Amino acid sequence: MHLRLRPSSCLPVLLGLIAALGCAKHKPKAEAPAPQKTPEKSDSWANWEVPRLCNYVEKEAESRLRRVHPEWTRERLGAAQGDVSALPELSGEGVEALIDLAVCSIARGELERAQREIDAVYRKARHRNAAFAGHLLLVEIARRRATSGKESVKAMSEVLAALPPSRFEQFVLILNSLGQPRQLRAVVAQLHQQPLSPQAAARALLFGTIFPELAKQNAFVLRASEDARAKIAAAPRKEIEFALPKLSAQASKGKSLNIALIDTGASLKAIAATAFEKGAEKIDGKDNDGNGIVDDRHGFADDEQGVRGEALFFQPSPETLQSYRGYLQGLMDLRSGLPSTPASRNLFEALQKNRNEEEVRRFESALNDVGDWAHGTFSASIVLEGNPATRAAVFRIAWLSESRTYPRRTPSDEELAKEEKSLQLLQKFIVSQRIRLIYTPAFFSEAYLLDQLVQSATPSSSWIALQRRAAEIHGRRREMWQRFVVGCPDTLFIVPAGNGNRDVVESGDLPASLDAPNLLAVGAVNSGGEWAVFTNSHPERVPLFALGLDVEGTLPDGERAKFSGTSFAAARVANVAAKALVLSPSLTPTHLRTLLIEQGEAIPSPFAARRLRARETLSTLGYRP
């Protein structure tokens, strides 16, 4: 859980919105990519016209595609005439390579080839959100094939109406942005300030060659959008029940279930009725049970002041809360990969008022403080709702919030050793106190580490050395989290898949990518049962999804709010899992994990996996309203 803000411009905002619609960037590889001939520094962008840019992008994209998917070639795709059933699923890097090739095909006027390349992505992308990575290009293909304005409106409308409802409005937002030639020229100007690379060249073709043609027909695009909106509104939609059943006092009478909330802290006052209490420990400044931690009656905190049984709730200064609480919604939206909400845009506008780097740093720090204040209690309110038999131990682990604990840097080896020691203490507590269920929104990304290393690097820093250091840190965390999970065999861990819109195994995100029978990673769906635009996934590692958009919970001050993210989807699954354990205490972690998945409902194509069905899951264990 982290947020790194930088002053925004039209390029990152536009690219971020487009990425949110389908394909997020894969994580940088630890090894150096296959060598490609890079233009000499003396070459200027002015010397690179469309045909030369296309040759450059195509050569690199074809090489990349051969490296990650040897079976996929343009020749084989052409010979297959669109039948890709025998070809393997496409990784995120493979999707990007095919989309880059489609961009070149459109720029050359080869529309049939571009259509085949984009259709292949739709059919074979392993991360199913990436199925829509080329949909904007399909709109332009439909427009170019039309022979009249009326025909183009109809063709573009059909392409847009084929989108899931949750994707449609975001596509329209992008199309409106792309309909402004001045903004497109500004994006190209920013690209021309960067070194010429295959990625920059592909974006230059998009924003300098393809999208300007679409912008010229903006009136037809707007009409097509309105026609598609009417078609989508008229289509029948299935009603989905997302309510979490409540256990009655009678159903939970005489029962008690110990669970753990490992987050950035939670208010004991807010969860007083369901707070865990260790009988052998008193709040008296002593280590009564001899486990090395003083006063850990309700859990413990681990921060810059060490490990202790107090300060389980992170409390920012009153001035910070007063000044920055108004940005909380925008912060949570950005953390969830939702950059286009009104709250997110308001936060971007506030950021632009900070004129220098030091002001931006203070702004970031205060925002992260407010986020840590809210997140744990909000999540706890979801996990504990409607279950009086639950007893929740609270663990405030400060380093779960990397951007506040390690601001604009990565952890040292000594700090990693402290992280490992913290997990060892957690494991000892969990096993000794028979904690049956753990909810934690922990999320660690190698790509984030590399970004921090790059931002703090000197001009003489080695790119390969930076990659190796990021991989080393992430590898150590993978090992320590694997030991932690495996070391608690009687406990089910429920974790979020993450909000990076990518495949967790390909990106290596932790702990969601771990392979353990007592760990369940959860993705997010919207109210229509479709994958949320930000959710991570993997066919095996993320088998279950739950509502993760506009999830209602309670803040530390008692105010109700709605936030989005896979953290809150996972919290809803943890809620049902805890109730299942109350109804059937003999369930093992493996059996409980299987029950949650198998009682879920299959998510319709083009998506995959299963969606949590809370009532049906509990009904199999004898639940009655």
Please render the helix and strand layout as text.
Blueprint: H1 10-21, H2 50-68, H3 74-80, H4 92-108, H5 111-124, H6 135-145, H7 149-161, H8 165-178, H9 181-192, H10 198-216, H11 218-234, E1 257-263, E2 299-303, E3 306-308, H12 318-324, H13 328-335, H14 342-352, H15 357-384, E4 390-397, H16 402-405, H17 413-432, E5 437-439, H18 446-455, H19 463-486, E6 492-496, H20 504-507, E7 519-525, E8 544-547, E9 551-554, E10 560-563, H21 566-583, H22 589-598, E11 601-602, E12 610-611, H23 614-619
Parallel strand pairs: 1-4, 1-5, 2-4, 5-6, 6-7, 7-8, 8-12
Antiparallel strand pairs: 2-3, 9-10, 11-12
Helix pairs in contact: 1-8, 2-4, 2-10, 4-5, 4-10, 5-6, 6-7, 7-11, 8-11, 9-10, 13-14, 15-21, 17-19, 18-19
Features:
23 helices; 625 residues; ten-stranded mixed β-sheet; globular
How would you describe this protein?
49% of the residues lie in helices and 9% in strands. With 625 residues, the chain is an alpha/beta fold. It folds into two domains: 202 residues, no CATH class; 363 residues, Peptidase S8/S53 domain (Rossmann fold), CATH 3.40.50.200. The protein has a ten-stranded mixed beta sheet with strand order 3-2-4-1-5-6-7-8-12-11, sandwiched between helices. Strands 9-10 form a two-stranded antiparallel sheet. Strand 2 and strand 3 form a beta hairpin. The longest helix has 28 residues. It is globular.
